[in-house]
Design a protein that fits this description.
Blueprint lengths: L7 H4 L12 E6 L4 E9 L5 E12 L2 E12 L4 E6 L12 E2 L2 H24 L7
Length: 130
Amino acid sequence: MSWAAPPEEDIHLSTSLASYLDKKLLILLRDGRKLLGILRSFDQFANAVLEGACERVIVGEIYCDIPLGLYVIRGENVVLIGELDLEKEEIPQHMTRVPPEEIKRAQKAEREASDLKGSMRQRMEFLDMD
């Protein structure tokens, strides 16, 4: 039995992480966090190493990039990987960049509002008569 070389198009699959090496990426994690950084390494489990990584936190119309440095991501937590176009602006013009302290306060307020909404819905659940 002889082994044939794979066709040229199979070698350069666009679904491979190898095509993203040394490129700036946006990675969405299972817990909803968004990480940006340059992909430096990966393995067969899609574990990845980002250089110059930062976490982008967005609350309403404000955002903040929190620097993380060299960051290792476990592959099972990755939902989406996308290459960033360096020619285009990363953030829409209506978004405002704020310091980390302000984004933390905004996150806390958003979380409290969400918790309050959930508790009010639970209290009024008895009114739902199908």
